[in-house]
Amino acid sequence: MSEAVSYEVVSDEAGDIAVISIDNPPVNAASHAVRQGLADATSKFAEGSANVAVLVGKGRTFIAGADIREFGKPMQAPGLGDVIDAIENLDKPVVCAIHGTALGGGLETALSCHYRVAVKSARVGLPEVLLGLLPGAGGTQRLPRLTGIETAAEIITSGRHVPAPEALKLGIIDAVDDGDDPLTAGLTFARRVLSENMPVRRTRELEEKVLAARGNQALFDELRAGVKRKAKGQLSPQLCLEAVIASAELPFAEGLKRERELFMELMASPQREALIHVFFADRQVGKVPELETGTPRPLDRAAVIGGGTMGSGITVSMLFAGMPVTMIERDEESAACGRQNVERILDDGVRRGKFDQAHRDRLANDLYSVSSDISALADADIVIEAAFENMEVKKDLFQQIDQHAKNGAVLASNTSYLNINEIASVTGRPQDVLGLHFFSPAHVMRLLEIVVADRTDPDVAATGFALAKKLKKVGVRAGVCDGFIGNRILERYLSQAAYMVEDGTSPYDIDKAVLSFGYPMGPNQMGDLAGLDIGYANRKRKREEGWEGRYAADYMDRLAELGRHGQKTGRGFYIYEDGSRVGKPDPEVLEIISQVRSEKGITPVALDEETIMRRYMAAMINEGARIVEEGIALRPLDVDITMLYGYGFPRWRGGPLKYADMIGLDKVLADIREFEKDDPVFWKPAQLLVDLVERGENFDSLNKSANR
Ligand code: T1G
């Protein structure tokens, strides 16, 4: 028996019960050692004296899936599917005792057992779709046999975790145990199997629920339409559904073959490689030096300065995390507005069914207060300034905060691009100052850029990461520069988009190209959503400070000056009729743009979709490389995570730098060299990119060396 799986027999008055325990920390992933151990234990049980077996995981969870680290490497026999079939083929019953999260191959193993019991806190699921895969060990064939096609399709194409009580209702498990020890739960159920002489019940033989859907093309087409709409270009949800449909259309053995074919197709897809990159990047991004050297400070109470869009969103995200918050505004009237902003968000949560009125009232009445007196921040462990984006305003505020905040309090600015070193310099405690850049709406967007200034104490940076975890956000460490990571990259590809429009490409073609790449919306649709007047004001301010490089936003200025501010005025790049949020292209806009081109003596040359995206992505990748080169981002994966969680980059493409690796850095550099001929300033290649190509390395090699 491998050390990953142990076998023992427990004798009691009910009879001999075999206990097969899996011990492969941290999540009992079904590694080769586990699979081999399970195969050996199954044979031992078959030949042994025990009449029933309990399969259980040690540590924090039952099997949480196949070992993702083995993907992409030659699979060592026995495969999980073979082990699972051997369990199901036994002629003595096996009871699976579930705790923690039985996911992917873990749930598939449980489905091959003849009975399943779970502790109440357990969750089950088939999240392979999130990795760009599908349940490849019989899950798409066995789950429908327990729940029916529609429920199985929803669970498999969403990848969601199903809490044990719901799993019981759906027929995925047979009992929920009130205790929290899976072995006790398993033994109790095993004794029942013996005393009631419960038969071997093979999931694959339960045909009723799949036969009910056999031939129901209308159902299959309806499911296909729904999954395709939600998938937004991602392959795995669609092939997951085809495998589930096969469970209704084909006998079990052929359904299994179909599942295998579809699984291998996904395993070979670039989307799987990208999504698994994101799985590990999600877990690496929180590993920063300051969490080695620093200790997070307490985060029991917070104060938020400012009750506008950002201040109220930040306040609510803290309320959702159960943190008592005091929101402070400059006077009573503004404080009242801030309160309205917070309560509007809370009421919206009730309307959307996120929580009930009682919960909303608790958040509003117990956890949160509003004041117009800055001394109200005196007992806060963390103070987050979310005031107007102006350096003088922020410096003045930080001087006041410095006077009132308690010793050891963490002082953060939510600025989206201003210099944290400069803000810290006006306080007597620059070591306690950092940037916490939330993204709007702050109670929804998961990205939090944690900006570590020159003198920020490691404890303070570590506190930023602890806050991200507490708020269920994805914290990314950023250095100090204009725009940190995300906005600095955004500025580059939006500039490139503006150049392409001014040079002759329709803004509607750019949006279409970006949408078909997998973004939820194109840059001009995004501009209409954010408000073209906002961009206009920002550009005006930057021109007053001295605009660097080509100015290609005259057409946008023209639109803003004509009052076409986007969705909020019903017209921007698009026309929004009777309050619809889906706009229609407007020939008048194209007229305005061609007018600007002729005023600037530009002979328009329109680009095709492929060229649009080559330019759009090259601008993003080049700036991302510079950000890594300058150490503003710790690793390339930090840039990927930022663009995934803050800017809508399609997850199944892995992030801009993973995407660059997958198309080949030599190709990206060749594109940049080609574009550089037109505009050597904008297209100066990042030195890191040049070096990586010369060394025959890629961004992922940097991720790996950084994580050693
Ligand atoms: N394989 C290998 N390592 C894994 C792993 C896995 N399946 N799951 C987690 N880890 C590592 C993770 O990288 C981290 O490592 C540590 O465990 C703790 O994880 C055939 C093909 C189980 C809910 O998709 O959802 O089965 O960073 O930080 O927040 O059909 O991990 O410490 O070095 O996430 O408590 C399907 C993926 C696989 C589940 C726990 N299963 N894992 O969350 O801890 S494909 C999944 C999770 C499959 C079959 C198919 C979560 C978790 P390190 P963590 P957590």
From TrEMBL:
Pfam families: 3HCDH, 3HCDH_N, ECH_1
Subcellular location: Peroxisome
KW NAD (keyword) present: yes
Pathway: Lipid metabolism; fatty acid beta-oxidation
Domain (3-hydroxyacyl-CoA dehydrogenase NAD binding) ranges: 302-478
Main localization of the protein described in the UniProt heading: other
Subunit structure: Monomer.
Protein name per the record: 3-hydroxyacyl-CoA dehydrogenase NAD-binding domain-containing protein
Organism: Hoeflea poritis
